[in-house]
Design brief:
There is one protein chain. The protein contains 14 helices and eleven strands. The chain is of the alpha/beta class. The chain has two domains: about 130 residues, Aspartate Aminotransferase, domain 1; about 240 residues, Type I PLP-dependent aspartate aminotransferase-like (Major domain) (Aspartate Aminotransferase, domain 2). The strands form three sheets. Strands 2-8-7-6-5 form a five-stranded mixed beta sheet, with helices on both faces. A four-stranded mixed beta sheet has the order 1-10-11-9. A two-stranded parallel ribbon has the order 3-4. Strand 10 and strand 11 form a beta hairpin. The longest helix has about 40 residues.
Length: about 400
């Protein structure tokens, strides 16, 4: 006998990131390397947290930490602060923000409310695995496009527009998970121009989870101005997360930034999202929102300086590791910024063989489609020579 609805997926969730991370934790080998989780660790191998952030958090009154948010859509001062932090006055179009339960919540709201059951969402062919999980949970199909080709995304969008009444496409850029790829401004402009030729509502979900770790922060945000040129039938939903930006991984706070030419359409979407917030998690962590506002008002300069040190640490790791891979002629996907470097393979058979050899050498990394994701964010610099040697030997 079963009590859940017949369409439910009753299989055990087997999230390989957490499975591998647990195996790494249980491995007694002193030379093991855990390159699984997308959490930034310092050079001692400990979770990096921003003191400029957590000193403010610790100073908050207990009543603020205990309180509900001021509404299902979040606190207005928080939403205003997110708008300023992310967009920095680059967007001139009308917009609304809705606070969410982390970046995952921001993405989930968009999947839930933009497509009907059995419609398809456009996803990169190599991507964060939870996109597929979220799509399946809402009964959505998926169509994959080449993650590195705007031309292929345009082609797939035009093809899919022949079969359904609206489109939703996910673009995780800059600092794409798992490759570190970022689209150039001219590629964004080409996409936005092409979407004007599609005579149906189309939504760009821009996942910016790693935006704040671009090695050139101003360059990393420059593409946002392209959104001022979207057509009347295009909407942009930018999904923001405090998990990486504030090292608030467990406080589950983020936001959707909803942008379009038509103010009425933006308001309608924000209203729908707010209703879903109330139904799914009621309201967002009040203390996290209050902390974000207070840091931006009182400690922003300290926070930016502290985060810049983390960015330079990450940049140093990536430069070393990519240099080692290049010298050994080991293929990897295009990398610009971000937490991950991904080894590339022509087929998953070869990938599985290399992955097995890495595991035998006590190296823990995540398999993705035609790739192995190396979380350089979680590997201290002094462990990179061993990691690089292990990868070379595994090939």
């Amino acid at each position: 006998m079963t009590f859940v609805k017949p369409t439910s997926d009753t299989s055990v969730l087997n999230d390989q990131v957490f499975v591998l991370a647990q195996k790494a934790k249980e491995d007694p080998d002193p030379n093991k390397i855990d390159a699984t989780l997308g959490s930034l660790l310092d050079e001692k191998g400990e979770l990096l947290t921003y003191q400029s952030v957590f000193k403010i958090y610790d100073s908050l009154d207990d009543k603020i930490k205990a309180s509900y948010a001021k509404g299902a859509a979040g606190n207005q001062d928080f939403l205003k602060a997110v708008d300023q932090h992310v967009l920095e006055d680059r967007i001139k179009l009308y917009r609304r923000l809705v606070a969410t339960s982390g970046g995952t919540g921001a993405i989930s709201l968009t999947f839930k409310n933009m497509l009907e059951t059995d419609e398809a969402v456009l996803l990169p062919h190599i991507a964060w695995g939870s996109y597929q999980t979220i799509a399946k949970d809402y009964g959505l199909k998926t169509v994959l496009y080449d993650a590195f080709s705007i031309d292929d995304l345009i082609l797939k969008a035009k093809e899919l527009s022949q079969d359904q009444d609206r489109l939703l496409m996910v673009i995780n850029s800059p600092a794409h998970n798992p490759t570190g790829m970022s689209f150039k401004d001219e590629e964004w402009q080409k996409l936005i121009s092409a979407l004007k030729e599609i005579d149906k509502p189309n939504v760009i979900l821009n996942d910016i989870a790693y935006l704040d770790y671009c090695y050139d922060l101003d360059k990393g945000r420059s593409y946002l101005r392209c959104f001022n040129d979207i057509g009347a039938k295009t909407m942009v939903v930018i999904t923001f997360s405090l998990s990486k930006t504030f090292t608030f991984y467990g406080l589950r706070t983020g936001a959707d930034i909803i942008i379009a030419q038509d103010a009425k359409a933006v308001d309608e979407t924000a209203n729908v999202f707010e209703r879903s917030c109330r139904a799914l998690w009621s309201n967002v962590n009040n203390a996290a929102m209050a902390c974000f506002v207070k840091v931006m008002q009182e400690r922003r300069r300290d926070y930016i300086a502290e985060k810049d040190q983390a960015i330079r640490m990450l940049e140093k790791r990536s430069q070393y590791f990519l240099k080692e891979l290049s010298a050994a002629k080991i293929p990897f996907y295009p990398y610009e910024d971000g937490f991950f470097v991904t080894l590339s393979f022509e087929d998953n058979k070869k990938r599985d063989e290399v992955h097995a050899r890495l595991l035998n050498d006590h190296i823990y990394a995540l398999k993705v489609n035609k790739g192995i994701r190396i979380a350089i964010c979680s590997v201290p610099f002094d462990k990179l020579p061993r990691l690089a040697d292990s990868v070379k030997n595994a090939y």
